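User: quick one
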Amino acid sequence: MPGSGKKQADRIARSLTWRQLLELEACARCGECRTLCPVYAQDGREAICARGKIAALRSLVRDARAGADQIAFLESLYTCSACGQCHVVCPVRIDTPELWEQARLALNSSGFPRPAAQTRQIDVIREFNNAFSRPQGERGAWADRAWRAGLLKEPVRLWRDHPAPNLYFAGCTASFDAPMQFVAVQSARLLQEAGVEFAILGPDEPCCASKLRRMGDETFPAEAARRISQLGGLSGATIVASCAGCFKGLHGDYARLPSGALPVVHLTQLLDRLIAEGRLRLRFEVPLRVTYHDPCHLGRHSQIYDEPRRVLRAIPGLQLTEMPRHGAFSSCCGMGGGLKLASEGLQHRMAAQRIREAEETGAQAIVTPCQTCCLGLMNGVKETGSSVRVLHLNDVVAAAVCPEVSADKVAAVFAAGC
Amino acid sequence: MLESIAYPKPWLLLQIAEALALGYVGLVLARRVRGWARGSKLNPVPPFAPGNVAKIWFLEVFAQPQIKRLSRTRWAAHLCIFWGFLSLGALSLFLAGLRLIESRALDGGRAAWLLHGDGNVIVKIWGNGFGLVLLAGLLLALARRFGPRPAPAEDSKEADTPLLVLLLWLTLSGFLLEGLRIATAFLAPHSAGPLLPWLTALWTVHGLSGVALIVFLPHSKLIHSILAPLVIALNARNEHARKDLYCPGPVKSKPTASPEA
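Assistant: Done. Structure below.
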């Protein structure tokens, strides 16, 4: 533990905003945050819920003497996915996700350790400009491979050679993570099917750096400012993000920084518009009963609830059924906020809970437009041995538009080394 | 109109106690503000529509739909306590103002009409009506506290109960005092005489209980009654600017019903 007492408390308090310090006192201690907290549902300790964390932080900014409470607080602060459920139910409207992220920053910059796995992830992002320790030169490789394998209608153009009105921002996971590269390929193909003129940055595409913010890294503002100046200089192009985490970063986190608001839409918003305008034709039936999982970063954090549901309802043959917890009350799969890095077992249990909720609806598949949620929910399927399939929304739309570009097909083609 | 009996009220004692209590609360709050001032500045907020933010603020502070969405019983209890206290607080301020006006003879007797004349019935209806609203809210809150509830809310019992008991005592002593006062109106002066010391004692205890609540306020969860409207305003401003949660308008989805509702 770092130095103790009032000085330490002052240092932590100075790293929070005055609004956050005020919020610590404004908490009504009603405990509503416990009712729907997905981590509390698994853990059950007061220290883990928002009220417990706020109480601990309140005493920490008064006197930061090391003690058992502090250790429990640090553990609970990092085993939180910052899903925002406590923010939604808080009658006082305390902005809890921001508070947790800022508290992580405050504690870390005051010398309190964060989980080693999170530190490693931060180092990787800083060193490689992506979360997968891969050379940036490989970032746009999916587009070339997909074109050569005949999965695209035309080659995807690089922005630096052919600027376009839209910029497709694939993000680290869809660019580098083999099981999820189909998301980038299908996104590009769907945009081509709808006749949307777009380009990608390829090796120039930066990591959005939002994970740095999620884990409370103090370099986030500077890293984000660099990206804002790079992306903001792209002749006013609209950025289309297919990753919910990147969207939250580009749309939400950057907007909190000076001159950080960028023109950005999530792919589901664009698909919804393209379907409504008749530009994207859903020609094939998809006879499937599905339920929709709202990713926290897209739902509670960005208020995108209706668009993905409209897209699903537009697919012929597809039946959409809701889980009891959906929309603003959707339960988190545990993949956000660095939680999985801090406690993998907890993430698996949270995802298992979500899969059980999906099973109860009688759905054959749980659909989500977030590749990170997909990966998280798959852990839940393994944990429960459920027969519910986890599908990315792109895969369902692709099945109705261009079934030849299914996730399985892309995976097979890419695995064959194409 | 029935004339209730006049009984001695130790105003000086109460005023001294109130002044000390308010001074103490002021000191505690000033210390807290100094603590908050250690925090860093907020990031600049993008342009927002003040009208919409004001609308969100009025709605969330005075109608509290955010609590209704979670539990209708809790909403009813909270709203009754909120409006009960707000109205009784406003009444106390109004009466203090009237007494000041009366003492300086500034209004040609209209203050006296409200304080001692036929107009006093308006004051009584206001006070007793909202006292009943407050009592209903407190009883509902106590019923929720000690009635069967889902496990998650158990932990706050210890912290909440003394506060609820103090609030309930304050309300009940107010009703008892008012009941006794009304009762004296039906009694002959010689029969009402022995009640006078009781009335004075009850009035003093009721007043000092109110002072105790003021002192207790910054150390209890009741502080949220002052800070929550501020946080709600700050939140509404940010979220409206970000076109984020709770913001009315085209980007807002239809609110989802709570699975608990």
